[in-house]
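User: Teach me something about this protein's shape.
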Amino acid sequence: MLTIYPVSWSGRLWRLVLDLLVLLWTAAWVVAGWTAYQMVTALQVVADAITRTGTTFNDWLHAFQNAVPGNIPGIGGALSGLTAALQRTAGDPLVQSGMQAHDAIQHVAVALGLFVALLPIVTVTGLYLVWRVRDARELTAAGEFVRAAERSGRVAEANAVLAHRAVALLPFRQLVRASPDPIGDLAAGRYEALAAAMLRRAGTRPLVSPGSATGALPGRP
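Assistant: First, the predicted structure itself:
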């Protein structure tokens, strides 16, 4: 099972705070993208107004054509041709232009909303998720290391490995907090305090020696 949060409250707390901050960051940019989308789509009222103007003009032409009798010699045919010409050159282009503008505004709104939201989300949230997955895998591996050492009964050997890793990898501040003489501890085989410090850094509990009732180890700060 994947371990998402470490055992210690200090490590768990700052990860929880970071998770919350990234969640708020992501939600804020989703809202920003949605706001940008709505602002652009508000321009569709202009395109819809052009479409309605063309439709109204065509309706007027049809009403005018129906109001004039078509059987008047020399006039009915001329009016019908004029009405059709006006519809082709004025009414229909307005309707078509309005519909095209409506679609174009919709496409721009979607593109802008996605750009505004996805760019910061991918760059910050994406990188954070990559780190959190790696961190969770490291926490899981550390826990499996502890359980495997305890199951096999090789706690002393595991402490020796961890103590050497602590001297090699821990910052000096944490190293001297774990032991005032880490090199002397290594030479004398006193591995427990350094091993516990390394496991705390890895986000898991110290090793429990066979027969021990608790995980408390000598020299633990």
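Now, about its shape. Residues 14 and 20 are 10 Å apart (CA to CA). Residues 213-221 have pLDDT under 50 and may be disordered. If you'd like, I can walk through any region in more detail.
User: That's plenty for now, thanks!
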